[in-house]
Amino acid sequence: MKHPVNYTLEKKEKHTGARLGKLETPNGTYETPMFMPVGTQATVKAMTPEELKAMGAGIILSNTYHLWLRPGSELIEEAGGLHEFMNWDQGILTDSGGFQVFSLADTREIKENGVHFKSHLDGSAQFLSPEKSIQIQNELGADVIMSFDECPPFHESYDYMKQSVVRTTRWAERGLEAHENWDTQGLFGIVQGGGYKDLRIQHARDLRSMDFSGYSIGGLSVGETHQEMYEVLEYTTPELPEDKTRYLMGVGTPAALIESVIRGVDIFDCVLPTRIARNGTTMTSKGRLKVKNATYKKDWRPIDEKCDCYTCRNYSRAYVRHLFNTDEILGVRLTSIHNLRFLTHLMEQIREAIRNDNLLDFKEAFFEEYGYNEPNARTF
RNA sequence: GGAGGGAUAGCGAAGUGGCUAAACGCAACGGACUGUAAAUCCGUCCUCUUUCGAGUUCGAAGGUUCGAAUCCUUCUCCCUCCA
User: Tell me, in Å, how far CA of A28 is from C1' of B51?
Assistant: First the structure.
């Protein structure tokens, strides 16, 4: 089948599994490895499309579940699709809603046909199935849509994980069948299996035998250590086709991005940069910097002296701190701009290092300055 | 001059005999955040101590009581009303 979303592998880094490539979508072609900012409710919180483009953002993420409940996928379809609705003319990827159903619904019932759960907005009974998720995503009209999967906790029992994974495979088949817009929307499958090597490998092979436009690795960054995550990647990415995109869902710490690229991942998404930005934490070349802290009261330096973002070119730590302390809306905007730019810039550097076959040197230099310990990064 | 009300920790404000080192809010300080129910959430917040704990508090001084932020006396300051 001819896909509307295609991956071209351009180069493999000499000493690692890192890949330099291009991801072609109906709304632009993007260099990978790439980080995708998250805009769950049809907006990357606090950012305008112009600002996102200025920082080098390519594809952004949005969410089936949230937009389905509000304002409704039919309304967005009526608006002319998600791109038109939110004034974003570059790539969009919608998550299937699987993660939301499993992460925020207390009361849910997973059945073969789909999942019964309660809306987080009003508690009303809802039902989401593979077909329903694809139908909604067809209405939303993103460039890349995701298969409806179950995302169990990493340390779920082997028996549970095994039956969950085969069900996710059956759901993947149903999603492929239900998808109607093969000319304008690529569909990605999602590999699950927790930390069980045989399940991961089997699931990757099962999905690989189906004609997806790309492949995701799901069920990570859900409570496991970084080391456990890296191990999963090491035996999972080799099972995925070389000529398709590998997407690691929900990962966004600088350390994990670098380590995952080394293990053959092409694209990422994560709420982390925008969420922590709104809470006053910034990512810098020297590690995390909590700009609200009193120590920056009279610090006239930019958040990151090595950063080229709008915030760092124009504002001091002292000023941004003041904005947070006075609860001014500009504060969260400035830190969001900075954090997103920090990650897009990091990915630019990673691509350059792959091009030059010195990714390991880059990694070492990066960690030397950034520090090896991310807050709460369980590294063993 | 007369009558009444009030003074509680950085600020605001509960508390009218023991369960009060003193609710709650704000400010301040620190932490968390990974396919976004998040401009959210969690701590600390009289002093000393890592903890246990010890010490000193509710305008001031004195008194009653086994025990007082809470009751009594005097004083200081603030507010309202009447002359």
Answer: 60
Convert the pLDDT of each residue in A140-164 to its tens digit.
999 999 999 999 999 999 999 999 9
User: What's the CA–C1' distance between A55 and B70, in Å?
Assistant: 63
Position A59: which residue type? Answer: I
- HSE-up of residue A178 (Cα within 13 Å, Cβ side): 21
Place of tokens 């998250």: A38
For the CA of A277 and the C1' of B59, the distance in angstroms is 46
- Identify nearest nucleotide to residue A120 by CA to C1′ distance: B37
Q: Are A230 and A328 in contact (CB under 8 A)?
A: no
What gap in Å lies between CA A233 and CA A227, rounded to an integer? Answer: 10
- The label of the residue with tokens 């997973």 reads A110
CA-nearest of A275, A257, A276 to A266 is A257
The residues of A carrying an active-site annotation are 95, 269
Nucleotide lying nearest to A294, CA to C1' measure: B29
Dihedral, CA atoms, A96, A100, A106, A109, nearest 10 degrees? 10
Strand partners, A60: A92
Tell me which residue of A165, A195, A194, A191 sits closest to A245, measured CA to CA.
A191
Neighbour tally for A70: CB within 10 Å: 13
SS3 A179: coil
pLDDT in tens, A352-371: 999 999 999 999 999 999 99
Stated pTM of the model: 0.95
**DSSP E strands, chain A:** 6-12, 19-25, 28-32, 34-37, 60-63, 92-95, 108-110, 115-118, 125-128, 144-146, 186-191, 214-217, 245-248, 267-270, 281-284, 287-290
Q: How far is CA A275 from CA A16, A45, A350, in A?
A: 31, 9, 23
Q: Which bases of chain B come closer than 7 Å to a protein CB?
A: 27-41
Residue nearest to nucleotide B28 (CA to C1'): A294
Provide the CA A278 to C1' B21 distance, Å, integer: 36
Express each pLDDT in A194-239 by its tens digit: 999 999 999 999 999 999 999 999 999 988 999 999 999 999 999 9
